[in-house]
Structures are given as structure tokens and as C-alpha cells.
Amino acid sequence: MRAVVLREPGRPVAVEDVELDPPKANEVLVRVAAAGVCHSDVRLADGELGDGRWPIVLGHEGAGVVETVGEGVEQLTPGDHVAFSFVPACGTCRFCVAGRPNLCEAAGACALAGVLMDGTSRLHSNGDVLQHGLMTACFAEQTVVAAAGAVKIPSELPLRQAALLGCGVVTGFGAVRNAARVAPGESVCVIGCGGVGLQVIAGARLAGAAPIVAVDRSREKLELARRRGATDAVDASATDVVSAVHELTGGGADHAFEVVGRPDTVRLAWDSVRSGGQATVVGLVPRHVEVSVPGIDFLSDKTLRGTYYGSGDAARELPELAALAVAGDLDLAGVVTHTTDLDGVDGAFDRLRRGEGARTIVIIDPDLAGGAP
Ligand SMILES: [Zn+2]
Ligand SMILES: [Zn+2]
After folding, report:
1. Ligand nearest 62 Cα, by number?
2. Stretch 284-303: mean pLDDT, rounded?
3. Which of 111, 217, 347, 373 is found 20 to 30 A from 359 (Cα to Cα)?
4. Quick check: pTM over 0.90?
């Protein structure tokens, strides 16, 4: 089957013919309909997430239809529509037991090693073992994932929209609901309005936040942000962000979300919140990059917190978010600025490197993916 492979960082990713083994116990084989292109794949492709993570089949945000199920899989049957979760929580480690399955130790270790939950890979190419990108590897016609990583969703939702749920949507909404716990009437500032930032804005709107200040250097993204519920837009290329946010929020936002992954934008988020407020870092800051804030600011009772994968339970939240989309309360397609096929993934990476557009959706099986948008 065809899959997008990263052979080594710095080289373009390319579509190759690779072999996929059948699912083992507690795994399923999914025919992939569509996948979203997330900035984390670019970080991985550029070698910013650590050594040894290649050759690898990329793609960790997608949706498809279950084709076969391995031994012991009871919750899924062939024909089910699923969205991928790249943290198939084990249910038994200390984090899972404590109700923080996004931090599952077993899933985290396997994702880092590029293997499934039994420590092995189902992907090969001419004798080479290929890693499974974030245990999902969905820039491919088919993939084998842990059963807990294929979350059943309503079949009414077109799969090209469902494809966005498993990274950007769950990460953005979870940051608002679970990490920041934004309350109605609280002010929110979102720095970085790409694929995930736009989901943070939609989540803030559903949480009843006001005002919602969108910050970006791209006019196109600021326009998308307004359409998703931002009440104000600040062009960071032409305006002093911190004073603009302080003015729009009457002295600093209750919450700031950093959705870029850079030290300077983390600092902007920190400086944009009021005393007692919280800056939540959603963006992926590369390995070995340090972030700093003035220590005296801790006297102002501010909180700087991280979040990973929505800080919640993706297996529970993905169907809820899918239901919101089916009900018309969440416009999933509103973040899509480009559509392509598997051969267009490398071009989509270049757009992300240049900061162009929000989400690219990769249509892998047009018949399964459903019609536009
Ligand atoms: Zn992602
Ligand atoms: Zn666990």
C-alpha cells in the first residue's frame, strides 16, 4: 500500500510502496479516508523532536473505516467509522488510574519509539522496519493501530471532517475545557491562529468566553479566526501585541493560549495575562529550546501551564466533539485552507514551514472521505 515515509530529516518526505502486517491482538486495521497535516509532523520531519525517529510513516490526525479487527477486540467491528487518537491509553498505569489518560506512560513510550503497544511495528519496506508515526501512521492507504486508538464516531459525520478531530480539535478544545477551564465571560487571548489555534478559538466561543482576542501575523488566519468566533483580531506584524491585548481585555486577559511553540510567543502569552491569570502553552516547543519569564512576575499569582493532547480523555471526548459537529455547533471544515492527496504532503509541510494557510486535508480515499467541504 502507499504511504508517506520520512527516510531522514532534511530530506523531502515521499510516497512509497510499503508492506503492512495484519492486526495483532487488541489492534485494528483501518482503511484511511482522510488525514490532516499538523505542524508536529513537520517538527518530526525536521528532526526537532529527537534522534532516531526514522524511517517512519507520518500522519497522526485522521479518520477511516475499520476493515479487520484483531483478537480480543470487542468494541469495534468492520465497517465502523473511526477517528484516530494517538494516545491509546493502557488503562492501568499510574496516570490512567489517576484519570489522566493523555499522559499514559505505556502509550507515551511507544509513541516515542514509533511502535505499537506490544513494542513492535507492522510496517516494512524491502526488509526495513518502519516506525508508526505517533502510533497512527495515517498518511497511508491503510494503517494498523491499537483498538483504543480508533475511536468510533457517528457515520453521519463526513470522514474528511472527522479526520481533523484526533489532533487539532481535541488538543484545542481540551486546552480550553480541561487545561484552562475557561468560564463564561472570561477573556481569552489566542496567540497563533493555525489549525490548532482556530480550534482553541472555537472552544473558547463554546465556553462562553468574551472577548476572544486572536493574534497572528497572517491576515488570512485572522479572518478565519473572526469567522470562528474571535471578537477582536490583532495583527502581530504591525501592532504591539501585549498593549493591544491589555487594552482589549481591560488590563490583561484571564487566559492566554500560546499555539505556536516558540519562546517569544510563550513570553507574549505570559505578558498578555492579568495578575492571577493563566497562560497555557499548547504549541509544541522543540527539544532543547528553553523558555523564560521574569521571575518577579510570580508575585502576581499568574500560572504558566502546559497541556498535552487536550489534557483529558480523548476516547470519551472525540465522540462528543463529533456529535457537536453533527449538530452544527462545531464547524470542522472551517479550518481547512488546502486540500490535497498523499503526493501533496511534502508541499503541505512546506506551507506550514512558511506559515501559510491553516489546515491542509489529505484526501486518501475520495469515495470514503465524502464530498466537499
Ligand atoms: Zn498534531
Ligand atoms: Zn496508561
Report:
1. 1
2. 95
3. 111
4. yes
